């Protein structure tokens, strides 16, 4: 069957409606031959820049044309899987691009099974926004598309209904309709960890905590999906990458280094460095280093030598006793003349050696008091809070001391380290997962390769280990959320990253890594997490009991007051005692206080 005469006009009308939904800057046409496009003349009337590739062209269109594309794929048959894979390589990670597929076959010659297999291949290639027009689609007013979430389903649409306002490309990544997204956490980043629940539930309940975990959990809520993660085995960065590339998982709860393309947008910035243990400096050594350094000796020399000499010569010049003298006489400033000038005494008095002796002993005594007070105060402080020094200061010092630096994977050095470290200092690094986990046990006998973000989270406030600027092995690292190359989730994750960064929500997750209330060692609290909180019904019962208690107290008080009032009236003769009370008393006038009263 030949294509309808108005195929080109109707097709251009569809392009106009698609552009009204979301503007595109360029039209990209992928085909084998020009005859595959049903009506070759439609390519001459595109009202936009057009890029046409045939089967001999192969590459990545990202470098030249960006993401504002409308992709038109011309196929001779729906069985042409090679062209589909070639298109997937061309658009690379732009899996959300709108793809309009023109198949030069008749709907009458195709069954839904073939069309369904075609869209299943599209789902495997992560092509979400794709619809198919056949050569006679405008005659039968039918076209096909599919939805991937929550489960694969073939869709057949009526072209005439689109004129009533239905979108050609609805946002299929806005609502995943409860679809399951699988993930693997990397517990080596310290942005993901497991915390035991403390809400009084059954033992064994755990919570996945950390800023990356909360990012994934909130993202799934944002797109109406469910997050499923695998536990048990400890996965590292490279195992998670392999699992994603093989399609076993959808996302990884880990960071990925930002590159030119493919990764999601920047989520955090860090540097890879070496954390080294700190040695405790003895108090005497610390005090010796305080006194015997250029910052201490220089002021001491200025105060004890230079300043008295300058003052004595200034006083001599004021009193008219200034005489140029040689260098050897100049250093004798602590002589009799210098001491008299310093003490403000007359220079005409006879020499008295006792003045010099008393002055020298006074200086020694005063200086000794200052030193003794300073030493006693600082020695007590240094015993309580001893100073800490890193075990090594740079890579050369580490080579001399035979210092070891552990990492959980030697490939991290080859992947991250600069050339100088790879060639000269690579012998310092050792791959040992057990040793690498020793900082968690506070066994600080070696260095450990970590990033600054991990150290800030895990060792916040710790005085056991510290970063050394001389041991950094990389410059600034831009970290993004780990997404599979060519995944359709990249664009939703990018949009969600912008939201949490601009709103400050991600910074809040860094400070509050868990949703539930919990007790940690670094932030102690006196609250008892096992205490049962009162409910509204409990408070209602307390209110009823307090009313009953207050009512009984009021009744007792009223009875006592009425009794006292009646006794008072009885004594005044206003009330008469009961007959049985008088009989008990032998007819006397006295009535017991506990007797019954009547009017």
TrEMBL record:
This is (Mediterranean fruit fly) hypothetical protein. The lineage of its organism: Eukaryota, Metazoa, Ecdysozoa, Arthropoda, Hexapoda. It comes from Ceratitis capitata. Keywords: Membrane, Transmembrane, Transmembrane helix. The chain crosses the membrane at residues 359-380.
């Amino acid at each position: 069957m030949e294509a309808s005469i108005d195929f080109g006009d109707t097709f251009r009308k569809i392009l106009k409606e698609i552009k009204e939904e979301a503007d595109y800057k360029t039209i990209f046409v992928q085909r084998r031959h020009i005859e595959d496009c049903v009506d070759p003349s439609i390519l001459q009337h595109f009202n936009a820049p057009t890029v046409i590739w045939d089967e001999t062209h192969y590459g990545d269109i990202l470098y030249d044309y960006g993401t504002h594309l409308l992709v038109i794929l011309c196929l001779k048959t729906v069985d042409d899987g090679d062209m589909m894979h070639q298109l997937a390589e061309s658009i690379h990670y732009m899996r959300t691009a709108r793809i309009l597929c023109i198949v030069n076959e008749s709907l009458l010659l195709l069954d839904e099974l073939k069309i369904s297999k075609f869209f299943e291949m599209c789902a495997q290639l992560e092509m979400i926004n794709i619809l198919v027009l056949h050569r006679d689609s405008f005659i039968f007013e039918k076209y096909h598309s599919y939805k991937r979430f929550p489960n694969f389903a073939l869709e057949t649409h009526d072209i005439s209904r689109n004129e009533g306002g239905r979108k050609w490309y609805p946002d299929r990544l806005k609502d995943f309709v409860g679809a399951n997204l699988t993930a693997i956490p990397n517990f080596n980043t310290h942005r993901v960890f497991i915390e035991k629940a403390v809400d009084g539930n059954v033992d064994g309940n755990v919570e996945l905590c950390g800023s990356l975990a909360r990012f994934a959990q909130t993202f799934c809520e944002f797109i109406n999906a469910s997050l499923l993660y695998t536990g048990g085995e400890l996965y590292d960065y490279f195992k998670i990458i392999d699992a994603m590339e093989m399609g076993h998982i959808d996302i990884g709860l880990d960071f990925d280094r930002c590159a030119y393309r493919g990764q999601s947008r920047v989520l955090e910035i860090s540097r890879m460095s070496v954390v080294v243990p700190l040695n405790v400096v003895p108090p005497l050594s610390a005090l010796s280093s305080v006194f015997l350094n250029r910052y201490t000796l220089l002021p001491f020399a200025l105060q004890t030598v230079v300043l008295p000499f300058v003052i004595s010569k200034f006083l001599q010049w004021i009193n008219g006793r200034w005489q140029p003298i040689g260098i050897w006489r100049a250093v004798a400033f602590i002589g009799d003349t210098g001491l008299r000038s310093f003490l403000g005494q007359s220079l005409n008095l006879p020499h008295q050696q006792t003045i010099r002796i008393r002055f020298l002993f006074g200086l020694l005594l005063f200086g000794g008091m200052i030193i003794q007070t300073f030493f006693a105060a600082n020695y007590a402080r240094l015993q309580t809070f001893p100073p800490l020094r890193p075990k090594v200061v740079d890579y050369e010092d580490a080579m001399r001391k035979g210092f070891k630096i552990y990492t959980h994977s030697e490939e991290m050095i080859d992947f991250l380290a600069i050339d100088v470290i790879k060639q000269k200092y690579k012998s310092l690094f050792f791959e040992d997962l057990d040793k690498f986990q020793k900082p968690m046990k506070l066994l600080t006998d070696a260095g450990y390769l970590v990033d600054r973000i991990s150290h800030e989270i895990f060792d916040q406030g710790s005085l056991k280990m510290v970063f050394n600027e001389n041991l950094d092995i990389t410059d600034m690292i831009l970290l993004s959320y780990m997404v599979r190359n060519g995944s359709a989730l990249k664009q939703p994750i990018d949009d969600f990253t912008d939201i949490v960064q601009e709103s400050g929500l991600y910074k809040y997750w860094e400070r509050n890594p868990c949703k539930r209330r919990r007790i940690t060692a670094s932030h102690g609290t006196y609250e008892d997490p096992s205490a049962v909180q009162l409910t509204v019904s409990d408070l209602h019962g307390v209110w009823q009991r307090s009313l009953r208690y207050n009512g009984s107290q009021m009744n007792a008080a009223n009875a006592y007051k009425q009794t006292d009032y009646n006794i008072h009236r009885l004594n005044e003769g206003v009330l008469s005692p009961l007959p049985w009370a008088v009989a008990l008393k032998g007819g006397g006038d006295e009535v017991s206080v506990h007797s019954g009263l009547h009017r």
